[in-house]
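Team,

Forwarding the record for the chain on the shared tracking sheet. I've put the sequence and predicted structure together so nobody has to dig through attachments.
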Amino acid sequence: MERAAVKEVVTDGMKAAFRRYPTGVAVISTVGPDGPVGLTASSVASVSVTPPALSFSVMGTPTARAILAAPSFVVHLLGSKHVDLAHEFSHPDGRRFSSDQGWEALPTGEPILPDALAALRAAPLHVVPVGDSTLVVASVLEVFHGPDDGRLIYHRKQFVTTEGI
């Protein structure tokens, strides 16, 4: 098998493997040059508690570039009531930061969703390009807890609520 064909088989296999692996759902938001920006992410992970740090990866979209250029951003860990919001932020033409979604602004300017399970204001520590993605390791500056209303996961290309877990 040619090298390109082997690479495609591994790429397809990796995609299929991660479709089987449920992950939490987050929205990452910041203020860009033209106002608030945000995107849905399923790659958020805790990196360290001492010092507090998290990681996520983004592709090269205009929203991702604005987040990468920002001095700080907010990572919102979403609960079961945020299915519609997750859908909106996962599509380029989705509604974002509408008044009915409950957004507010922090004193530092970033958009925050007070009813997220948790919102972590963070600043980039390391930005690592990897293929067509960028891995971000960020220092957690502040943590805000919202109501605990169940879980939202991403599994097999769908947002799924899981009550009672």
